[in-house]
Write a structure and sequence with these properties.
The complex is a heterodimer of chains A (388) and B (266). In chain A, 27% of the residues lie in helices and 31% in strands. With 388 residues, chain A is α+β, with helices and mostly antiparallel strands. Chain B has one domain. Chain B is 72% helix and 0% strand. Chain B has 13 helices and no strands. The chains are: A alpha+beta (388), B mainly alpha (266). Chains A and B meet through α1 and α3 of A and α1, α5 and α8 of B.
Chain lengths: 388, 266
């Protein structure tokens, strides 16, 4: 491994066994063994992940909840063992991935400082030298002889952070640190991070807050559903992340009956099925629903990738009469570059009487064409005139 | 080996033992004194029932001290194994979120049990002086015998604690085994009370029984039945030691294999 690489992740897979009925008694283990039937699901949490983190990098691991990013961090930190693949770590890694782990509520703040210090590998003597600075940084001078259970959560985090930043390791791994603490504390964290950055220490940060990533990280990796999606600059990753995320949020907001009974497809003007269109091109949308449903009206809406409602129309407004279970909808895409998606609904004789609703229909990409002059979600008709 | 006793690990072990002591008698008025009071109170009860009422051990000189030594050694074995058994699961927060060598958790809980044993040995010395027990040269063997008990308990602790992560029944099973062990070990009664020599031999195959008898023989009175005399020098007098070594090796291997997956199995 070359010398300027801090961590190399090479084809790592990790899965967890999730037993359907947890075998935590010997009796059931014996019974199941006898039956030769062990019912468990193997949940693949990470699939063939490979990337490298350079020394002195401020590296982000980004993904939605349940994407496997924390599992990846635990693998890097050596808490989990990969099923296959390898992780090479070049240098000393902090053993912490979260703040305040190992704090004991029944001990005083002072005692907890020493205990936490020991988890970082500091002897009592070394801790005694640093003690005053730690307390001062945490601004908890008056509280050190109180039991930790009487601390507020903010105080606990301040104390934990003040100890954690003492670690002399080359690589720091942190899971969602900035999610806690008030603004003043966050400012302090940020100052510390800036200092790390100047000292060229490697920091690996797991987060779903894109602002943190954009602000600190030099590079980031995006993980979704346990799979490697992309690695690149924070801006690129932040954009990819919001692309991945916006669509499902629309799904969640719709309290309408969700249905796969509506089929929506997009075609180009020469009747080829496609999801890429040029600006100002005509899109043909085919909407089909089961024959046995009574449908008198239908509607189609266009949403931007961020979930903004761009345009919507329906057969009520346009006074169109449906006489089959399939309709064609043509619209000219006066849209800006980017990704959009459709949603569609079917109705009885009024817009309130919904039959079915497809919240997230097909997505499509708008690419630049010479016809469009201007920028934004939509391209409005415009002209300039001189005036006095 | 050097890697295992690094400065960092030493600091961590000492801090974990310290915490253990601080937390153990948290909120009790007598605090550490309970470490000594618990075996002493048990001793008083057993002494009244078995020595005063049932007149056991009249043939053995210094029987009260003899009884106390047995209780202290048994208590150490019981405390160390039961505490270690749940310690991996109890420290789940550390295991899931910090990369520390897993054996340190078992080792530090074994150390705090060992420290309690040493404190209890001080009480025994006081009793020996009060009872006018003659100082025997063979007392020099006592530390070796206590070390044997420690190694046996450590091996079992490693095995049980790793097993407990997967099967919580281990806790109940071990409780029953300890209960049985307490009566099948000559703690309350002198071994000579069992007339059948074969039974004596079987009982002495248990490393704890062997260690308790050897400890009594070496430091209190040579009138104690020990494997050497019961087995009459046969090769099987070494079986208890073989069991001790097997428990340590087996415990270490099993623990090492399982410890990789503690974080996800807890």
């Amino acid at each position: 491994m070359s010398d300027n690489i801090a961590i190399k992740v090479d084809g790592v897979n990790k899965s967890f066994k999730l037993p359907h009925e947890k075998v935590s008694s010997i009796k059931s283990a014996v019974v199941n063994f006898y039956k030769r039937k062990r019912t468990f699901e193997r949940q693949e949490v990470l699939k063939d992940i490979s990337f490298e983190i350079k020394k002195g990098e401020f590296f982000g691991i980004v993904g939605r909840n349940g994407s496997g990013k924390s599992t990846l961090l635990k693998l890097l930190a050596g808490i989990y063992t990969p099923d296959s693949g390898q992780i090479h770590v070049n240098g000393k890694l902090t053993p912490f991935i979260e703040l305040g782990v190992g704090f004991s509520p029944e001990l005083t703040g002072r005692e907890n400082v020493f205990l936490n210090g020991a988890l970082l590998g500091f002897s009592r003597k070394e801790m005694e030298k640093m003690y005053d600075e730690i307390v001062e940084f945490a601004e908890l001078e008056r509280f050190m002889d109180q039991k930790l259970k009487n601390y507020s959560s903010g105080m606990q985090v301040r104390l934990a952070f003040s100890i954690a930043i003492r670690a002399k390791s080359d690589i720091l791994v942190l899971d969602e640190v900035l999610a806690v603490g008030d603004e003043a504390f966050q400012k302090k964290c940020i100052d510390v991070f800036e200092k790390y950055k100047r000292n060229r220490r490697t920091v690996i940060l797991v987060t779903h807050d894109m602002e943190t990533v954009k602000r600190f990280c030099s590079r980031a990796v995006l993980i979704n559903g346990g799979e490697f999606i992309d690695l690149g600059s924070p801006i690129e990753i932040a954009n990819k992340y919001s692309e991945l995320n916006q669509i499902p949020t629309i799904l969640d907001t719709g309290k309408l009956p969700k249905s796969h009974n509506i089929e929506v497809e997009t075609f180009s003007t020469n009747a080829n099925k496609t999801d890429t269109f040029k600006q100002f091109e005509e899109m043909i949308v085919k909407i089909r629903w089961p024959k046995d449903k009574n449908v008198y009206n239908a509607g189609v809406s266009v949403y931007s990738n961020k979930g903004e409602y761009v345009f919507g129309a329906n057969t009520f407004i346009d006074d169109f009469k449906i006489n089959n279970n399939c309709i064609i909808y043509r619209l000219t895409l006066k849209l800006g570059e980017g990704r959009y998606f459709l949603s569609a609904g079917t109705f009885l004789d009024s817009p309130e009487k919904k039959v079915d609703f497809l919240a997230t229909g097909p997505a499509f990409q708008i690419i630049k064409s010479g016809k469009a002059k201007g920028e934004g979600i939509t391209i409005l008709d415009h002209k300039w005139e001189n005036s006095n | 080996m050097i890697r295992y006793i690094s400065k960092e690990n030493k600091a961590l072990i000492s801090e974990l033992v310290r915490t253990d002591f601080k937390l153990r008698y948290q909120g009790s008025v007598l605090g550490y004194a309970w470490t000594l009071l618990r075996p002493l109170l048990l001793f008083i009860i057993l002494y009244i029932v078995f020595v005063k009422f049932l007149k056991l051990g009249t043939s053995i000189p210094h029987y009260p001290v003899y009884l106390l030594l047995g209780i202290v050694i048994w208590n150490f074995f019981l405390e160390m194994t039961t505490q270690s058994l749940g310690s991996i699961v109890a420290r789940g927060d550390l295991i899931r979120k910090i990369r520390i060598p897993r054996w340190i958790i078992i080792f530090s809980s074994s150390l705090s049990a060992a420290i309690n044993l040493l404190l209890n040995m001080v009480v025994i010395i006081i009793f020996m002086i009060l009872n006018h027990v003659d100082l025997l040269v063979t007392t020099l063997w006592l530390p070796v015998i206590l070390l044997e008990v420690y190694v046996f308990a450590l091996g079992l602790s490693l095995f049980l604690s790793a097993m407990f992560v997967k099967f919580r029944d281990v806790g109940y099973i071990w409780e029953v085994i300890l209960q049985a062990g307490f009566y099948l070990t000559p703690i309350l009664y002198p071994l000579a009370l069992i007339p059948n020599v074969t039974f004596q031999k079987i009982i002495l195959l248990n490393p704890i029984a062997q260690a308790i008898q050897d400890a009594r023989w070496s430091s209190i009175t040579h009138k104690t039945l020990i494997p050497h005399t019961v087995f009459q020098g046969g090769w099987y007098m070494y079986i208890p030691f073989a069991i001790v070594i097997a428990s340590l090796v087996g415990g270490l291997l099993y623990f090492r294999k399982e410890s990789k997956y503690f974080a996800e199995n807890i």
